[in-house]
# Entry
Amino acid sequence: MKRYFKNAIVRRPCKQMVNGITSSGLGKPDFKLALVQHDRYIEMLEKCGLKVEILEPLDDFPDSTFVEDVAVCTPHCAIISNPGAASRNGETKQISGILKKYFSDIEQIIFPGTLDGGDVMMVGNHYYVGISGRTNQEGADQFIKILNKYGMTGSKIELYKVLHLKTGLSYIENNNLLVSGEFIIHSDFESYHKTIIDPSEFYAANSLWINDFVLVPKGYPNTEKRIKEKAYFVLELDVSEFRKLDGGLSCLSLRF
# Structure
């Protein structure tokens, strides 16, 4: 069942983002350019029909612009995560109060469980949860138990090569899945119509469906072409400065 979104929450990058966690080897982000790219991202969310709440930067948390990691928004509740990177734990306190404006039911992942929202992929009422360096078995089990409480389901996917589940995998509705690397022949995804992302365009596997639009990172023409062939409206966005922090399009917002 296709689910249309009405709202999005984003957080402005802080100046300390240049010291954020990264394994990319692409150098430090250009803060001023990141602000310009973030402005454009907000414009695209609005073009997709979303009402966007823009949160102030958190200077004590360099990675806080990646707001998707600190919560998962479902149709029945919001689930505050417990990020696997210790430097990000305090971000959850900041998002909890914001989500109370939108959700009557707020749940939370607690230690020893850890979970990053980037490891969660929603497909209808089912949620795939990546077991990664940031999301552990206990966190995934807590998450799935919460889903079950509200009549939803979840399943765990072991990750071996990517940071987050959605680093290499994106569901773009209509049973269509962008897949790359270790997910191409994964048995859990055999029933989907798979668009295999060429290794040279691996970063584009993290594209983002919003209300029949698909946001695609700039610079990946083959992926963009193949998504257009599936009759989607494609919006191209340059997020080069966020890529330097291992971030992608989905990381920069909560959508519900």
